[in-house]
Every structure is written in structure tokens, then in C-alpha cells.
Model the fold of this input.
Amino acid sequence: MALFGSPRKGGNTDILLEEFLRGCLEQGASCGRIRLCELQVGGCKGCDGCAKTGRCVVEDGMEAVYEALDRSDRIVMAAPIYFYNVPAQAKAVIDRTQALWSRKYSPQEPEERSDVRPDRKGFFIGVGATRGKRLFDGTLYTIRYFFDAINAEYAGTLVYGEVDGKGAIRDHPTAMKECHEAGVQFAST
Done:
């Protein structure tokens, strides 16, 4: 399952994610796609409703994401970096996976839980325009906890800084090849 975290369609993040998916498809993987900016996903209300049931009480576009995550054993998220983290659309989705984290600790019996998936893996692709040495630090903490919340082993990251302008990633000397190879590896493990 590919989560497109950029609000800009066809930008650097999308280009890299499509190259990653091309590698996955070459391995025979089936790749679903969700463009997060096309969903209406509100932020977490902090109401603790999910703590009791393992389910979010808010009904909105996040339902499609929950369903996709529940049926996927490989999840890749790609996002640009805005102010040292993922954009609001991606962050709302990440925050709403609190319900999935709560599901791990809900009173249900483990065999009744759809989130117990020891084979699930997650991968992150990030692109930022600035050249700050710590550009991805905060994001990578957020992403690690996102994958933990959805019970996915954190299988890898590719991040690229100093990439500005729509399509500029194509001029990067290694990015396209690295994303393709990472997709091949991700789908074959």
C-alpha cells in the first residue's frame, strides 16, 4: 500500500514513490495507492474513544486508510518535508493511527484483532528543499512511531535534501535508481 503524503500531485515525492512502486511491481507485487490530500481526514480529537474499543469514533476519510492498512503487509509512505515534518494531510493520518495503536492494547483477544501481522513492513521516502543537517530528524521519529502504531517493522528510509522545484529530483544523481532498487527489495522480502 502506497500512501502519497504530498499535497502537490506529480512533484518530487510522487516521482520517487512511483519509481519505488515500479520496483515493487517488477517483483509481482500488487500496489494500492492512496493520495492522502484527496481524503477528508480530520485530526485526532484526543477523546480516548479508541482506548476503549480500538476503533476511532470519528467517521471520515480515514476509514479508507484503516481498511487499506488492515489488508496490507507492506506499507510505504512518501512525503515532502514542511517545517521539519510531514505535511498536515499526512500528519493527520499518522495521528489518527492512534486508534490502531490503542487496538494493540484494547480488551479484545489477540486472535480477534486484525492488526496482529508479524510480516508487516514499512518504508519511508522523504524529500526536502533545505540543506539543514537535521532536516529529517523529527520526521524520522514520527515515522518510526507511525510504523510501530500500525504494527509494521520499520524496514527502511530514503531521504533527499536540497531538492527544490517540481521535478528536480530527476536531476539527483542516485535517487531514482535507489528508489527503484529499494522497491524491488521491499517487495521481495
Remarks:
- The first strand starts at residue 2 and ends at 4.
